[in-house]
């Protein structure tokens, strides 16, 4: 699951931090956001709170500090980037919370634009020296490693859902080597890109991964197909991306491995993973 999938399914599972019942006054004050009443935000802002032009949310996951440091200086043509807000003592994370400059907009089905932005983002991230920490034991880091590892790991050995097991085995069997060089990408761009009416995309966060060029775009396509926000013709529209089908195989695997680590995943989410896996495998067979 990703932020877009969680929003579409209206379901939260245990690995995802629920929205706190209220925003502590001291948190708002430490991030210079103590002027006004807090307003609840959606998944693109990690279900945090907005006060004025500041969005505050719990600092959950190993990527948050890295994301803030990178977004603090990142410039991407055609893509606005939400800048982090420092605490009163200059930190990006304080008391388990973080803050960013809020931008109006919502998660909408402008998927092709987001794919274009994803390609531009990867080009810009090529100039970032600090690599993201992908060694964490959170479900997303584990899923990323599983999707790319040649070896069967603990997640595979512990698979209880027969449908997920079959999907994962089929996708793993279809993987071939990708020769494109690795670089920094974003594992959840669809779920962190918002649009205001008449405006271009705004990136609210970064979930860093180190994968071949084009993977961020492929993940956007797969995530959009999972929530039926685009059509399968998107692969044709971006067929110039090298190794697109193989990147898409890994992108579906990534979401399948996330689901495999969550207790009580809704059957319709698994059905969507199966549907997109069939589509990607069918396209892969047609191009061989």
Concise summary:
This protein is α+β, with helices and mostly antiparallel strands and 288 residues long. The chain has 11 helices and 10 strands. It has helices at 3-9, 25-30, 64-71, 111-125, 139-148, 154-157, 162-174, 215-226, 234-237, 244-260, 267-287; strands at residues 39-40, 49-51, 54-58, 80-81, 93-94, 97-101, 182-186, 193-195, 201-203, 208-212.
Notes on the protein architecture:
With 288 residues, this protein is an alpha+beta fold. It folds into two domains: 3-101, Phosphorylase Kinase, domain 1, CATH 3.30.200; 111-287, Aminoglycoside 3'-phosphotransferase, Chain: A, domain 2 (Alpha-Beta Complex). It is 41% helix and 12% strand. It has eleven helices and ten strands. The protein has helices spanning 3-9, 25-30, 64-71, 111-125, 139-148, 154-157, 162-174, 215-226, 234-237, 244-260, 267-287, and strands at 39-40, 49-51, 54-58, 80-81, 93-94, 97-101, 182-186, 193-195, 201-203, 208-212. The strands form three sheets. The chain has a five-stranded antiparallel beta sheet. It has a three-stranded mixed beta sheet with strand order 4-9-8, with helices on one face. α5 (139-148) crosses α10 and α7 runs antiparallel to α10 (244-260).
């Amino acid at each position: 699951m990703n932020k877009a999938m969680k929003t579409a399914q209206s379901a939260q599972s245990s690995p995802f931090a629920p929205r706190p019942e209220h925003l502590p006054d001291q948190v708002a004050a430490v991030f210079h956001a103590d002027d006004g009443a807090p307003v609840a935000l959606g998944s693109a802002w990690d279900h945090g709170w907005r006060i004025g032009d500041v969005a505050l949310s719990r600092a959950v996951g190993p990527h948050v500090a890295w994301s803030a440091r990178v977004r603090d200086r990142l410039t991407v043509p055609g893509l606005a980037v939400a800048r982090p807000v420092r605490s009163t003592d200059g930190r990006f994370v304080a008391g388990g919370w973080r803050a960013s400059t809020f931008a109006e907009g919502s998660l909408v089905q402008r998927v092709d634009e987001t794919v274009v932005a994803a390609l531009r983002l990867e080009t810009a991230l090529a100039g970032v020296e600090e690599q993201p920490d992908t060694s964490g034991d959170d479900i997303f880091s584990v899923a990323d490693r599983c999707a790319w590892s040649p070896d069967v790991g603990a997640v595979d050995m512990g698979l209880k859902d027969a449908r997920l097991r079959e999907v994962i085995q089929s996708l793993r069997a279809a993987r071939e080597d990708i020769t494109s060089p690795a670089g920094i990408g974003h594992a959840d761009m669809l779920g962190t890109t918002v649009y205001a009416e008449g405006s271009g995309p705004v990136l609210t966060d970064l979930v860093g991964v180190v994968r071949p060029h084009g993977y961020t775009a492929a993940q956007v396509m797969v995530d959009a197909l999972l929530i039926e926000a685009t059509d399968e013709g998107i692969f044709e529209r971006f067929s110039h991306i090298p190794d697109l089908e193989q990147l898409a195989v890994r992108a579906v695997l990534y979401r399948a491995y996330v689901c495999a680590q969550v207790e009580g995943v809704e059957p319709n989410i698994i059905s969507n993973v199966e549907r997109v896996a069939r589509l990607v495998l069918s396209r892969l067979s047609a191009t061989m």
